Amino acid sequence: IYNQIFGNEPPSGKWAEPYYETEAASTGGRQRAIAQLRRLCARDRNNEVYRLWLARVLVYDPKTRMEGFQLLESLHDPGAVEQARTEWRQALLWEKENPAVLASLDAYLQRYPDQELQNIQTSLRDKQEHAEEEASKEHGFQALRNKDMGMAEAKFADVLRRSPNDANAIAGMAFVRLNQKRFDEAVTLFDRARTLAPKRADLREGYETAKFWSLMQQGSTALRQNQSETAIAAYQEALTLHPEDTQAKLGIAQAKVQEKKLPDAEAQFQQVLGQSPNNTDAIAGLAFIRLDEKKFDDAVSLFDKARRLVPNRTDVEQGYRNAKFWALMQQGATALAQNRTDAAIADYQQALTLKPGAPDALHGLAGATERKRNYSEAAQAYTQLTVANPADAQSWLGLIRAQIGAKNPKAAIETAQRIPPTTKSQIETRTDYLSEMALAYYSTSQTAEGDRVLRQAMEAAAQSDTNDALNVRLEVASALVDQGKMDRAFEVYRQATRLHPDNAIAWQGLIGGYTRMRDFAQAKAAVRSMPQNTYEIATKNTSFLNSVAAIYSADGQCSEAEDFLNRSLSLEKAAGHEPAESTQLQLADIWMREGNYGKAREGYRQIIARDQNATDAWRGYITALHNQQDDRGVLAEAQRIPASIRMQLEKEPSFLTLLASAYSALGQNAQTIQLLQQARTRFQAQGQMPPGELDVQLAWAMLTDRQRDPRDFLSKVKA
């Protein structure tokens, strides 16, 4: 009808509103009505009536109802607002179960009080809050699964602000705290959640997990604070929750280590390794125990296994280097104690590659090289030590000792002058330092200074002495003997035997000095004054046995002397050494005194076979042949004497006389006369009167020769 009257264009004025209502209600007309009304609203945006008409059409269809609500909310003209009430209320009733209309419902109730709709408003608000809480929880758990703890915490906190007793939100927050390692808070939250939902297994498991890690954290904190008992209690309680947990057992082990209860700690580590043979913490823990027990080789093996399992672990790598260092130090000390100096030096050098400049290793290397008499290397090591620690008196003493051993006493004196005053004041009254310096001064021909310092050393020794200092003074005495300063040497030896009666070397030096001076009475008295145990120790030394043999020999007790010399040779043989030439010579001399010329000759011959330049052996050998009346042998063997040795022997009148006797026995008078004349010349050159026996022998040879008249010779002798 409207179309017949108005045609295709909608009417305006009073017919417009019923026209659009009718069109919207007609078949297929709703969309045209909406489109036409939208154009009207667009042409006149301030016309609230047009918006009211459009809203009425829109709210009747659920698909466009929300747009209609928005248009209704935008109305402010009182007339339009009042006309909108009925359709707005009806539309709200249609959507009473939909929280999405809550904003429009709020707007409606601000304008039109309505109890029924207020009840709907309350219901929808509850639904909305519940939906928002559920959404927040869902987002929270999703964030928790994604390890986004910040987001998860925010979502669960949002729920708990609205619903503080929401078990799911409390549980979610508990899992957040668990992931954040805030275990004590997690325990509290899980406990609340369990109270609200007692039958939930996940909450029980979460609580136990949080409680376990809370105890583990307490144990770790207590360990760091050296509260080992508290730590053990926490770890033991943790094991009641997870009896097979290796970390808790490791914690107990570490606490036992802290308490120095190493056997208990080892038992725990072994228990862990029984469960997990390649557990690096347990292997490293055992390694550190072995290191503490000074079982360095075992520690090295364990650390090496741990570092192969976890190559970049700093504490394990450092532990390995420490264990290797001390293993080498221990090996070096053992080798040095067994006199395997080369092995000791190699060990100390390898230790220094691990810890360059380590004082312990440098001291070991210095001692080993000094023992090997490689004094230059020892001096280098001691020099490093004095540079690193100028206050270390022992290093300065070692350096001086090494320099003296290297036959560089001048350097030793210069070193003494470089010692810092504070350090020097500590050592300048020590007997070992004074003894070393005395040796240095004597070795540089500074006799007066050497005497002065040696006197100080002996005065200091009378008050307090050490074996090292004694050994240096004995070395000084030996040097004095070599220099012919016997009186000073005897002072040192006598004091040494008085202060250290159990020192066999001191007695050997004293007795050896007396025998060297051929003061056999004093030597014999010294032997008799030796303590028995010291005497027995000394008899293990070949030089001492030889000295005692000389005493007995001088006393005419040749069999006793021979016995001591044979013991000396037996010691040489037992040590794998060749017989000492001095001992063999001394023994052959005794046989000569006993008149056992054949044995003596063989003894001298053996010496010559080993050493063609043995002057004393040649002299004895030729004499033994002569005493056996083997004058042909004398002359034949004399031709074998090396030229240099023969020249030396021919400076001795007695040797020339002996050869002359051999020539005389064989009737070779010319050679006899020549040798006897040479003997007379030697005596005269030495400021001595030739013996009358020599002159008689020479005159007789001249008479027998018949080529010379002995009367001229005899007249000269008488003159």
Report what the structure shows.
By secondary structure, this protein is mainly α. Among the domains are: 2-113; 578-649, Tetratricopeptide repeat domain (Serine Threonine Protein Phosphatase 5, Tetratricopeptide repeat, Alpha Horseshoe); 651-719. Helix 37 packs across helix 39. The longest helix is centred in the N-terminal third of the chain and has 31 residues, at 115-145.
Briefly characterize the structure.
The protein is mostly helical.
List key phrases describing it.
Serine Threonine Protein Phosphatase 5, Tetratricopeptide repeat, rod-shaped, 719 residues, mainly alpha
Largest sheet: none
* Gross geometry: rod-shaped
Poorly predicted tracts of residues = none
**Beta fraction:** under 5%
Rg (CA only): 59 Å
Mean pLDDT across all residues, rounded?
89
Number of strands: 0
Structural class: mainly alpha
Total DSSP helices = 42
Proportion in helices: over 70%
The CA-CA distance between the termini, in Å, is: 198 Å
